[in-house]
Structure formats: C-alpha cells, structure tokens
Amino acid sequence: MSPTLRRRLFSIGCILGFFVAWELLCLAFRVSELILPRPSVILVTMWADFPAILPHALQTLYTTLAGFGLGIVIGFLLGMLIGGSRLAYDTAYPMLVGFSSIPKVALVPIFVLWFGAGTVPAILTAMIMCIFPIVVNVATGLSATEPELQDVMKTLRATKLEILWNIGLPRSMPYFFASLKVAATLAFVGSVISETVASNKGIGNLMMIASSNFDVPLVFAGLFILAALGVALYVVFSLIEGRVTGWSVRSDTFSTGG
Length: 258
Known about the structure:
The chain is mainly α. It folds into 2 domains: 31 residues; 220 residues, MetI-like (MetI-like fold, Orthogonal Bundle), CATH 1.10.3720. Helix content is 81%, strand content 0%. The chain is built from 11 helices and no strands. Helix 3 runs antiparallel to helix 4, helix 5 packs across helix 6 and helix 8 packs antiparallel against helix 10. The protein is flat and about 75 Å long.
C-alpha cells in the first residue's frame, strides 16, 4: 500500500471515528435531541425531509455560486490593480481593509433596503465575503514576482502588460487558488447570513424555521448539508489547482519520511 493511500485511509478513518464517538457519547450520556442529536438521527432526518430540504439547498447553492463568481471577478481585478500599482495599493488597500472589517450581517439590512428581501442580498453578501481574501492573495502573488525575471523581460523590451501576462499572472496563480479555497467556504457563510435575516428560501431560512419549531435534528441537517457543499466546492478548486499550478507543488518526501 502506497504512503498516499495509507494516509488517505487513515484520514477517512479518523473522520468516521469522530462521528462514531459522537454517536456513542450521546447514547452513553443520554443526551437529549433538543441539545445535541446523534449523527444517525440527523441522517434519518435528512432522508425523511429530503424533498423539503432540496429546494432550499439548491437556492443556497445558486446564491453562493453567483456571489462567488462575482467575487472572483471583482477580487481578481482589484488584486491585479493593487498588486501592480503602488498608488492603487496606498489608496485602495486601506479602504478595502476598513470595508472588510465591517460585520457583514450589518450590511444585509442595507441590501434589503436597496434591492428588497430575497436572492439579491444573499448574492451580494456572498460576494463581499469573497473579495478580500482574493484581493490580498492576488496582490501578494504579483508583489512576490522575482525582480530578476522582470529585469530579464525589460532587457527584451517587454511592455508592462507583457511582463504581467508572462510572469506576474503565472506566479500569482498559487496564491489565487489558495484564496479561492478560502473564499469558497466564506461564500456559503455570506449566503446563509443573508438567508437567516432577509429571505424566505435557502438553508439559512430552513434552519431558522426549524429552530423556531425546536426541530434540532433538522437544524443540524442543514449544517451537514452546508458542510458537504463547502467540502465539495473546496475539492473542485483543489483539483483545478492541481491541474493549473502543479508546477508549484513541492515534493512531500520529507513530510512522509519516504
């Protein structure tokens, strides 16, 4: 058995062991389902209520992907601007940090006033949750470009755009994909925040209704679905990252001891 396969099997075993321990501890201490339902109860609830859960899950997935896509475009362009211009860095970066420091739940009522309750506030909240990590990583990747490579391109009479396209962007790709894996999970957070405040559809709304009805297993079912969607999106971008930036991945020979 290869070390990689053994490591993956061990990881799966640890994850399954966590849920088995959760199940057994709840049984041993007779924990009420109103406090902490067992994983088996949550899975049964997900199966029994799947027809009711599915529309909410699809709505959350749609708003998250829409906001995530907008966040990628805006964040990437802002990152290129800030990373490629000292004036833009000195001007836009402090404003971006200040805007990112605002609790996003405080922006949802403003979006509702502007666009009404529903899908648009959820998309915008997911978008603004994504922008900051993407901007920071893209700008960092551009600023980390080796000066020697830029000097070589300048001796070849390359323009700033050619240097950016041939050196800056490829060098920033590992940073960019690292930010996407972070932003993907934040996008779900943004969507759910908005859905709990100003929407009548989505996993966030479903969890609020279930909580008001003291249906704790359904609340945890919503959490499980959000976790599964987040992991799926993370895996997708990890696979794309491996294809695009495989050249930047270092060998793990020392970490595996092989």
